[in-house]
Structures are given as structure tokens and as C-alpha cells.
Amino acid sequence: MRRQFVYSVQDFITNVRRSPETGPTLSKFDENLRAQWKDRMNSGLFMYRLGDIPTRIIPGRHGYVAQLNVKRATEKRKPQEIQNVQQEFNANKFNFNKVSPEEIIFEMTKEGDVNEKRQDEPGKMVVLINVLTKFAIQSSIESILLSSDPGFRMGFNSLGAFASVNHLHLHGYYLNHELQIESKSAQPLLPEKGFHRFPDFPGGFLFYTESDGVVDISRTICKVTDFLLDNNVAHNVFLTRGHPPCDQAQNEESQQSRNGVRVVVWPRIPSFGAKEPSAFNIALCEMAGHLPFKNKTDYEVATEEDVKDIIQGQLFPEDELHTLEQRLIHHLRRSPCRVHHLPELRHHGSMTDSTVASLETCSFT
């Protein structure tokens, strides 16, 4: 019998601050997640033990958080070779239906969803290719809201954006270091849709919501990622606690507020075929300013300019990003969200691979 974690909107943590002096009081979600993660680690289910990770803040304006995690590069499962952003699913390849029951931390179910059948639910568990759905986006935002720790992050790599498995899945981890993405200001594009643009490097699109706007913002983000897929654009998505994107925080209290969730979408040049070795991959956490280095030399000597040069090679030129921005504005003004045919809406945590910091949360949608 799988362990259940049943939650409701009353479990969302709506008052979160980032404080350098004191750590957060853990929520019920955090306590369950950490306890079960530790249990799986002690049971030897991980491919490697994470241990203490050397960390340094790279000097410069962007405040990149660099960490040395050699085992993540040398002892993880070999990534699948990806050739298309909507590549057909291959049941013979690894997918999360192949993990053992012991690797599942718990099954998350939202109250009210347990016995409901929606029009987009055929009623059986299926495997989807690694393409975001509205439910996957919504459940990710809700997971962030269930945590009282501003260091809990989630994210998604599309095919062609360093996804290593062609099965819909999301990553979740704790990082006890502030990222500038939590508080950077952004330029409003369609504020009524929660749609903004990051003018700073690396350029991307920002959405923001608090607990009362999750459904609507999930629908809008889904429209954006559907549009990117339809136009064969690879993308990374990062979710974190943060404050409103246009809030010119004037005092320390408002600067440290993390009551809402920021969701950043980065369109990018696709990376198909065998993944190229480098100092670090360019995936969701690297785009957000968290850099897990593969080797000690690069970790110790990398400068901010080195990092920007590596990331820049995966980004669209500014004129192409601006054109995409205008097309997305037009698209959001007129189009409904695509209906994704989903099974019963549940998601699980799988402990097959250690990720960059704590855990991997796999969405079985």
C-alpha cells in the first residue's frame, strides 16, 4: 500500500519570509518529504550518497551559486538520446513505471480529487511523453505552496532542454541559498494574465501567483508551453518562492517576503543527440543561477563571464526572443488551453536518482 499525502488549499503556506538568521519552521509537507527521503537514503535506494556539497558564490552581479557535485555526472543513469521536442514514447526505455515500489516516497492527492472523474480523465494510468500539462504545472505550484521553506524549488526540462527521460516528470529539491530569481524585477507584458518578461540575463518569461490564483496561472503557463511545443521550441521551467515581479520593495520586510510562487519559462536553442560534456549542463537550475559543476577545476576557477558565455550559447538571440514574445502576447489574448488527456490525477516522488540537492519528484500524469 503506497503512503498517501492528502492535502487541501488550507495546507498552503501563505506567509513565508527569507531570513538569514533563522531557518523556516517546517510544514507538514516538508516534514513528510524529508523524513521519507532520509529513510530511502538510509535504505540504500539511491545510486549515490549526496553528502556535503562544496559551495561558493561566484563573484559578480548575478550571484551565481556554484556547487561541486561530481557524482551527479559520473554515477547517474545514462540519459536517453533525444531527437525531438515531442519524441514518441518508447516503453523499452527507462520510465518511472519501472521503479520499485520502495522508491516511491508518497502519493500526493488533493482533497476533492480523490473520487472525482473529470472529462479529461480516461480512468486508467498511462505514460505521457515529457510534455507539460496543466495538471503538472498546477501540482508543481501547489507543492511549492505546501512548503514553508523558501529554498524548496521545482522545475521541468523539456525534451531538447536536457531532459534525460522521455516520461512526464518534474524535479524538486531544496537549496539553502538565495537565488536572485526570487526577487528580480520584471517587465509586465500582459499583467492581467500574470505574464512578464525578465529583461536581465538570461532572458525569459515570468509568471507570478499567490495561493488564490493557482488555477488561472497554470492555465496561462500551459498555453505558453503548448505554443512552444507547437513551434518546436525547447524550454526549461523553474518554480520558486518569490515576491511580486513588479514590487519595488522599499523595506527589508517586503524584500524578504516570499508569499507567492514565481514560475520562469526560458525558451532555448534545443540540444539534441548525445549530451555534450562541459563544466555544467544548461538545464532548469543552471538557468535559475544554481550551477552544479561536474569537475573540481571548473568549479574552482569559473568566473561570472565564463558562466554567461556557456549559458549564452543555449539562448535565442535577442531579436528572435522579442519576436517570440510578441507572438506569445497575441496567442495568450485569443487561445484556450489545450485539453490533455490525463489519467487519475496523482503524482509521486521517486528516489531512483539523486538530483542536485535533495530529491526528484516524478509526476505520473
Strand percent estimate = 15-25%
The whole-angstrom Rg is 19 Å
Q: Number of DSSP strands?
A: 14
Q: Which CATH class applies here?
A: Alpha Beta
Largest sheet: 7 strands, antiparallel
When the domains are counted, the total is: 1
Which oligomeric form is depicted? single chain
Question: Which segments are poorly predicted (pLDDT under 50) over 5 or more consecutive residues?
Answer: 114-124, 341-365
Strand order of the largest sheet: 6-5-10-11-9-8-7
Q: Give the N-terminus to C-terminus distance in angstroms.
A: 19 Å
Specify the CATH architecture: 2-Layer Sandwich
Quick check: average pLDDT?
A: 84
SSE topology string: EHEEHEHEEEEEHEHEHEHHHEE
- The CATH topology, please? HIT family, subunit A
Give structural notes:
By secondary structure, the chain is an alpha+beta fold. It has one domain: HIT family, subunit A (2-Layer Sandwich). The chain is 25% helix and 19% strand. Keywords: Cytoplasm, Guanine-nucleotide releasing factor, Hydrolase, Nucleotide-binding, Nucleotidyltransferase, Transferase. GO terms for molecular function: GDP-D-glucose phosphorylase activity; guanyl-nucleotide exchange factor activity; hydrolase activity; nucleotide binding. Its EC number is 2.7.7.78. It is an enzyme of class 2 (transferase).
